[in-house]
Design brief:
Helix content is about 35%, strand content about 25%. The protein is of the alpha+beta class and about 425 residues long. Strand 11 (about 270), helix 10 and strand 12 (about 295-300) form a beta-alpha-beta unit.
Length: about 425
């Protein structure tokens, strides 16, 4: 179990801070003040200790038991369309990138129809991710607004240092979707990606997370809206936590949740991530591998960002020397952000394993402790992806890769509250 971690907490990113009240949806966005007296110590296999840690120190919110349908690639389209088409009260979408293509326009027409029928439709986009100054995107957003859809765009700060990278959709406060997918042909058709359908108490936390972001950019809700309907634990559901991260050095909640999980692992760590360059994460995986945990890392062989590909490959010799297994997925660009540990712990969401996600952007991940869900994720994602991957047995780092690793390292801000 956790041996000790003593904190003096000022304004922390606690459950009450990031989950606003049902009435005002207020959200404390100031930087946390944390004085650390001792780093936490974890015991492999002590998942109760792990959960206590992330609840206390990583802003995790216990969401009870939820039905989670782990969807890969085009599997998400039918249930997402069914949920939106069946909406009666509200549709809330927060997404980093909304593309003005066939899929983007198809969804826009459905959203417009629902708005015309009296459903309150709110869409929150990141200006940088959605390229909202582009004429095609402007046309799509103009259409949505003209049809009664409430659209807000979060402006990008100088140097894009703090973006809204989350991917959340909530329908009627009862059905939620989150994962790695943005909206557009790139994500639903061309790339390998993942999104999950969630029913249960976690949906209320997704709704609160959306509403806090919505309010932060000036969005409002109507008096009397039933935005948080009651939702009971789902029979045979997965024990679930929602871990939200606020960027701009506010917290490192998702990074803490990952690193504590690596330290708690006993047998097997599997990771699929496109932008894998966080030095602290990689060091923690090397440590796990050296103490006998089987570590399997699946990265895209065809990365859309060359700098990230080069930086990731610069870490290969260190990982291989520690005993980790490194694979490159050969089929197409793989954009999912998923991990399974010890056939029990699972996470998925918007956060990559790079400093931009773990430190600078706003992100949201699901953490579940459930053997059945872990088995499903292994069967639907890791097992087939490993068969379509080439195992890297050795790697000689190039000058370009070494330079990319150095650049990535400059983006990282350390956190004293991680093991």
């Amino acid at each position: 179990m956790i041996a000790s971690f003593l904190l003096v907490i000022g304004a922390t990113a606690s459950a009450q801070d990031w989950a606003p009240s049902p009435v005002a949806f207020k959200f404390q966005r100031g930087a946390p003040t944390i004085a650390v007296m001792a780093k936490p110590v974890f015991t492999p296999g002590d998942w109760l200790g792990y959960l206590a840690y992330i609840d206390a120190s990583a802003g995790a919110q216990n969401a009870g038991k939820n039905s989670i349908d782990f969807l890969v690639d085009r599997e998400v389209m039918a249930p997402a369309l069914a949920a939106v088409s069946g909406a009666r009260n509200s549709i809330h979408i927060e997404v980093f990138q909304y593309q003005a293509d066939k899929i983007g326009w198809s969804l826009a027409r459905v959203l417009a129809k629902k708005a015309a029928g009296g459903v309150r439709v709110r869409v929150l986009l990141d200006a940088k991710g959605s390229n909202t100054d582009h004429q095609d995107v402007k046309a799509l957003l103009g259409y949505l607004r003209g049809e009664g859809v409430h659209v807000l765009v979060r402006p990008a700060p100088p140097l894009d240092t703090h973006l809204d990278h989350r991917k959340v959709m909530v329908v009627d406060g009862l059905i939620g979707f989150t994962g790695g997918m943005n909206i557009g042909e790139t994500y639903q058709e061309q790339w390998h990606d993942q999104q999950s359908l969630i029913r249960g108490p976690a949906v209320a936390l997704l709704q609160k997370a959306f509403l806090s972001q919505w309010q932060a950019v000036g969005g409002t809700t109507e008096p009397g809206e039933n935005l948080l309907p009651p939702s009971a634990d789902q029979p045979d559901g997965a024990q679930t936590r929602v871990v939200a991260h606020l960027g701009a050095d506010h917290d490192q909640n998702i990074r803490r949740a990952y690193l504590a999980a690596f330290a708690t692992s006993q047998k097997l760590i599997r990771i699929a991530d496109p932008y894998f360059v966080d030095a602290g994460v990689i060091k923690a995986l090397e440590t796990a591998a050296r103490r006998g945990v089987k570590v399997q890392i699946v990265l895209p062989a065809k990365n859309n960002i060359k700098l990230m590909q080069d930086a990731s490959r610069a870490f290969y010799p260190d990982l291989l020397s520690a005993g980790a297994e490194v694979y490159e997925y050969q089929n197409r660009m793989a954009h999912e952000k998923v991990a399974v540990i010890d056939d029990y712990w699972t996470t998925f969401g918007s956060s990559n394993l790079d400093p931009r996600s773990l430190v600078h952007n706003d992100e949201l991940n699901i953490v579940a402790t459930d053997a059945r869900l872990a088995s499903t994720v292994n069967a639907k994602l890791f097992e087939p992806d490993l068969r379509q991957s080439r195992r890297i047995l050795s790697h000689k780092v190039t000058a370009a890769e070494r330079a990319a690793r150095a650049i990535a390292g400059q983006l990282f801000t350390d956190d004293p509250m991680v093991p």
